[in-house]
Design a protein that fits this description.
With 266 residues, the protein is of the alpha+beta class. Helix content is 22%, strand content 26%. The strands form 2 sheets. The protein has a 5-stranded mixed sheet. A 4-stranded antiparallel sheet has the order 2-9-4-7, with no helix packed on it. α1 runs antiparallel to α4.
């Protein structure tokens, strides 16, 4: 009877702990980067690009921007990224008709943070050469997870503005000035509490065009850098499970230490 009661208590506690851990799912689903894109006039994406850091065109995460340009132009966009996010930037260039081109061209996609430090790509094709007969070329760059805080000497990505620069590195001189169409899109994935760090950046690295442009100066729901991460949920669940294991061990030890009752002889 005692063991049956103890089993029921432990089962109920384990179910409660599982429900607590399960609450981490909705928290990730409520992330602004995972929300559906708005429709109507609010969904209008930029159709031009800046020519330098100072006049970079502001874009939102998950919104594809386009621009008409000429081969040889430097194209700039800027978007916000918060702590715990892993940004990915994708670009596509629609090239001129092959009959008008003289040879292959090499294109490159670079991403800079709010201090204009070039960020390394963990994976993706950042530089690609398009043959003379190619109709388009696609590039991509996935950054490290944005950290809430880092040492001054480190080059870790921090919350704030991120600049996209797209340009041609090498092309025949006769092809410079030919029209191209560029498309860029920045998205982010939530890295979760496993990448959380202690400390907090006093202010996001938001400068220049991003600081003056509504919608791209920061996330729609504000900067979320701070003490809270879903790591707290797993920590609490681990504490509950550890306490239950202690109670179970105590009950089993106490039960096995009692002498069994011997029925009286007939």
């Amino acid at each position: 009877m005692r063991r049956t009661r103890m089993t029921r208590v432990l089962t109920g506690a384990l179910l409660a702990a599982a429900a607590l851990v399960g609450t981490a799912g909705p928290a990730l689903a409520d992330d602004p980067s995972a929300s559906a894109s708005p429709t109507g006039e609010d969904a209008a994406a930029p159709t031009e690009a800046g020519t330098a850091f100072r006049d970079a065109t502001a874009i939102e995460q998950g919104r594809r921007a386009t621009a008409a340009a000429s081969t040889g132009d430097y194209l700039y966009w800027v978007f916000p990224a918060d702590a715990g996010e892993r940004p990915t930037v994708k670009a596509k260039l629609t090239l001129p008709e092959s009959a008008t081109r003289r040879g292959a061209s090499t294109w490159q996609l670079d991403v800079y943070d709010g201090l204009r430090r070039r960020q390394a790509c963990t994976y993706g094709m950042q530089t690609r050469t398009a043959p003379a007969d190619a109709a388009s070329v696609e590039l991509s760059c996935t950054l490290l997870t944005v950290r809430a805080w880092a040492e001054p000497w480190a080059n870790d990505p921090l919350p704030g503005s991120y600049y996209i620069r797209l340009t041609v590195l090498d092309a025949p001189e006769e092809d410079l000035g030919l029209p191209v169409r560029a498309e860029v899109e920045a998205t982010t994935a939530d890295a979760g509490g496993a990448h959380a760090v202690d400390g907090r950046l006093s202010a996001p690295l938001v400068q220049g065009a991003a600081a003056r442009t509504a919608g791209a100066g920061g996330p729609a729901d504000g900067w979320a850098s701070g003490w809270w991460t879903d790591r707290w949920i797993w920590t609490a669940a681990g504490g509950v499970l550890a306490a239950l294991a202690g109670v179970a061990g105590y009950c089993l030890t106490r039960g096995s230490g009692r002498p069994s009752r011997v029925p009286p002889a007939a």
